[in-house]
Structure formats: C-alpha cells, structure tokens
Design brief:
The chain is α/β, with parallel strands linked by helices. The protein has 9 helices and 14 strands. The protein binds threonylcarbamoyladenylate and magnesium ion.
Amino acid sequence: MTTIKEAATIIKSGGIVAFPTETVYGIGADATNQSACLNIYQVKGRPTHNPLIVHVNYIEQVKTYTEFNDNAQKLSKFWPGPLTMVLKKVPDSGLANCVTAGLDTVAIRIPAHTIARDLIEQSKRPIAAPSANRSGRLSPTSYDHVYNDFADSIAIIKDKNPSTYGLESTIIDLSTEAPTILRLGFITPEMIEELLGKKVKIASKLSKVKAPGMLLKHYAPRTKLRLNASTLLDGEIGLNFAGSTLISEASLNLSISGNLVEAAANLYNYLHQLDNYAVNHKVESIAVAPIPNESIGLAINDRLSRAAEGF
Ligand code: TXA
Ligand code: MG
C-alpha cells in the first residue's frame, strides 16, 4: 500500500501509480513525461493508438492544454466529477505525444475524489490515467481488483471504500460544432442536453470509431455473458436486477430495489465476483437480467453489451 505522498514522489520522478477516483481506479503518470506515459501502455498491454485521459484539478489548468470553448464552459458545471471532455489541444501544450496518441485533441477530466485531487496537487503535474486494468478487461472499482491484476508490480494507493459511481466517466467530444457523446456514463445525455440547450449525438458502437479505444469488445470478463436473460440455462450463474429470478448457487443482484445508481456502482464488482466464481467452478456462462434502457441504464447496457461481444 502506498501513501499519497509516496505516490506523488513516484509521479514526479517519472514512475506510475494506481489511484482511486470516483469512477474507477486509474494508473497514472506525469502527462508531460513521454517515457512515464509509455510505461502505462506497457503495463496495461494497451495499444499505443488508444489515447489517455489527462486529469487536473482546476479549469485554469484545463485552459493551458486545450481550447476551452462555450460548450465546455457550460458542461464544466459537472466538474469536479465523472465527465471527460475531448477538446482541441493547444499548440505546444507540453503534454507527452503518446498521451494523445498523435491526435490534435485531448481528453481531459477534473476528478472529484479527494485522493485523486491530493495526488494531482502534491505531484504538481497533470496526470494521464487510463483505468487500472489490463487492456480490454473489466475496470477496477476497488483496491483488490487492481491488486488482482497487477499484484506488487505497481504501487497502489488504497481507498477503503469502493468507487462511488463504479462506471468510467462519460466522454463527450466538444472539439467539433456538434457535441457527440463517445462513451455513456453517469452524466447522462439528458443531463448534458439540458445544460447545452440542444440535442447531442451519441456515437454508435458500429460507426467508425472516433475514440480508438471504443472497441466493440471491451470491459470483458473471461466468462461469456448472456444478456437479457429471463431464465437460467443449465449450469449458468445469474446476475439479477430488481425482481429478476436468475437464481443459482452464485447469483447476485445489482439492485434489489431496482435502483440504477446502485446497479452501476455494483456492476464491475459483481462481474469480477461472478467471473472468478465461473473460472474456479468451470461455469461457462453468466446470464444477465434485462436492465431498463434509460438514464444510467444506458451506460450499464453499453458496458454489458461490450463485455458480451466476441465470445
Ligand atoms: O472514469 C474514467 O474516465 C477513468 C478514470 C481513471 O478517470 N479513466 C478511463 O480511462 O476510463 P480509459 O483509458 O480506460 O478510457 C479512456 C477513453 C478511451 O476509450 C480513449 O480512446 C478515449 O478515452 N480517449 C482518450 N483521448 C481521446 C481523444 N483525444 N479523443 C477521443 N477519445 C479519446
Ligand atoms: Mg479503460
């Protein structure tokens, strides 16, 4: 376990550190240090064409790296918090090239979690951080998830509580005239449309990907998922929601009361648990109950459908 002070020293000296945020844990490095950031790609096994999110504490810092426009100003109401904006990068931003994977835009976020904020403050650096999982796998929402993926190979700051939201940030591309949501999350399309006063597009999973990381198959457990299940097939275990009855020796319920916020917070943790059970007990598939496709349910269904792809 690493303290914030130790972690800040590691970041300043060009190392990498896993740390909690209110969405999921990230693996961070000084966003101005090319070799430190390349190291993130290496430990995650992440393709270098998939850019990273830069984390800072204040809007003033956002403005030093990006062309902060009117839409960004309006949506900054959600900061600090689970929203990432893609904005035009300023010339000579000082950010390491690999952070933006050669694009002329930067994905940037002001996190709310006090540990993340203290780490940025004490290291006095913008911190580039993808989720702290091996590339393509489930995102981590607790210290144990990060430890299970990386053990002692990276320093980890522990939060005794799991992540508040449990889903990666909403990503919105504001670098063009028409704002486009690239990744659904806790900040919903309706919340964004209300502040912008206009409709936003949602990038289709099948359209040509703007975010190279928005691969169809992503966030995947090792076990096959069967979505929208109403009954359990032989040998399956179940992931329930509200009153669904996919009951077996290892079934879980994302939210018995049918609360989507609670379901989002439990999603990755329960998928980690069911996946481990399935691998240890040779269970071939996890049946998942239908989740209402509204509000945060949109983001939950987005992650589930990516996790279910490609088996
Ligand atoms: O909640 C989060 O966003 C977490 C925490 C740690 O902040 N981070 C996170 O990072 O989920 P990551 O790397 O797992 O996902 C970032 C996504 C990737 O799909 C990447 O392709 C996209 O953001 N991205 C990064 N820079 C971009 C850019 N300039 N344009 C479009 N997409 C970009
Ligand atoms: Mg990720």
